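Quick one, probably user error.
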């Protein structure tokens, strides 16, 4: 059965654990010394054609997205994780090559420089293509 105009596609690709070294943080030391970040993405797109053809040209090449995110984190200079998560989402949605209709971005700071805190800090945002 093929999708009709009334069928809503809810396919997505998850990319988790994209490790990147970057210079994002509120403290000046974070912007000078840098630290590791982890990015998880949930990319919503129609995978109907790829699920039938088994051709990479009919889907998203994950390598391009991973490299795209790593390059963005390496070059970003923001004070807030919120800004970094938003920049990742906006940049990916602005790139027509990726065919993504919605994106969920989770940016995690595994080693936040907060005294007596050994946990992780994560920001999660969801954005839609306009």
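Nope, works fine. Designed sequence:
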């Amino acid at each position: 059965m093929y999708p009709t105009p009334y069928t809503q596609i809810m396919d997505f690709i998850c990319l988790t654990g994209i490790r990147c070294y970057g210079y994002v943080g509120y403290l000046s030391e974070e912007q000078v010394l840098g630290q590791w970040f982890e990015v998880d993405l949930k990319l919503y797109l129609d995978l109907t054609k790829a699920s039938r053809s088994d051709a990479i040209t009919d889907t998203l090449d994950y390598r391009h997205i991973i490299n795209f995110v790593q390059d963005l984190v390496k070059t970003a200079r923001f004070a807030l994780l919120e800004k970094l998560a938003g920049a990742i989402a906006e940049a990916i949605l602005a790139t027509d090559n990726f065919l993504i209709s919605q994106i969920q971005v989770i940016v995690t700071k595994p080693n936040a420089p907060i005294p007596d805190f050994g946990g992780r800090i994560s920001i999660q945002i969801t954005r839609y293509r306009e």
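The beta strands are 12-22, 35-44, 102-109, 121-128.
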